[in-house]
């Protein structure tokens, strides 16, 4: 039996020797071949982790080629991954809507009509109406906020509804 088979790279002092001997050269090889962007230091470290995980199967004479092969394959996998990432970055997500262009145009027209109708309300009517319908406040809360009675708030909201219904004939109000 050769001496190589008796030297087990799973022994810490032998593995440390392999690391000290090949780590810088492996890093430099990956750096020169692939550049800094793909983290050659990380890939070199990962190759040594793989070697440690498979130390029973790798002989001392094959350790160097094992390290270089594993590290190179990791870098190639990273290159493939980066290509996929770039491809998906170039694809813009399509904005889908089930709304037809006609519906969207009508919606915008109604919104503009609604804004104009709100402008026709008095300030008191508009404030009471918006507090009730937009913010969901109860009549009693609005009355406290505005310093008026509940009946005044109800009247303002009721008259605002009347004006809005007249201005927005086809617009359904709730």
Work out the strand percent: under 5%
Quaternary state of this entry equals single chain
Helix content: over 70%
| Global outline | rod-shaped
The end-to-end span amounts to 93 Å
**Which sequence of SSEs, written as H and E, runs from N to C?**
HHHHHHHH
Structural class: mainly alpha
According to DSSP, the number of beta strands is 0
Walk me through this protein's architecture.
By secondary structure, this protein is an all-alpha fold. Helix content is 72%, strand content 0%. It has 8 helices and no strands. It has helices at 3-6, 12-34, 40-53, 63-90, 101-120, 123-133, 139-146, 150-167. The longest helix is centred in the middle third of the chain and has 28 residues, at 63-90. Residues 1-6 have low confidence and may be disordered.
What is shown here, in short?
With 174 residues, the chain is mainly alpha-helical.
Feature tags:
rod-shaped; 0% strand; mainly alpha; 72% helix; disordered N terminus; 174 residues
List the helices and strands and how they pair.
Elements: H1 3-6, H2 12-34, H3 40-53, H4 63-90, H5 101-120, H6 123-133, H7 139-146, H8 150-167
Helix pairs in contact: 2-3, 2-4, 3-4, 5-8, 6-8, 7-8
């Amino acid at each position: 039996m050769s001496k190589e088979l008796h030297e087990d790279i799973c022994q810490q002092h032998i593995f440390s020797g392999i690391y000290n001997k090949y780590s810088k050269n492996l890093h430099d090889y990956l750096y020169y071949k692939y550049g800094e962007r793909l983290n050659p230091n990380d890939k070199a470290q990962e190759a040594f982790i793989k070697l440690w995980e498979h130390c029973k199967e790798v002989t001392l004479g094959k350790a160097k080629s094992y390290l270089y092969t594993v590290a190179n394959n990791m870098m190639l996998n990273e290159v493939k991954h980066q290509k996929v990432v770039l491809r998906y970055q170039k694809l813009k997500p399509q904005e889908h809507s089930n709304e037809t262009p006609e519906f969207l145009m009508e919606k915008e027209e109604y919104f503009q009509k609604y804004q104009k109708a709100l402008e026709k309300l008095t300030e008191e009517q508009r404030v009471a109406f918006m507090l009730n319908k937009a913010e969901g406040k109860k009549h009693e809360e609005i009355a406290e906020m505005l310093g008026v009675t509940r009946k005044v708030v109800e009247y303002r909201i009721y008259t605002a509804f009347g004006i809005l219904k007249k201005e927005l004939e086809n617009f359904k109000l709730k």
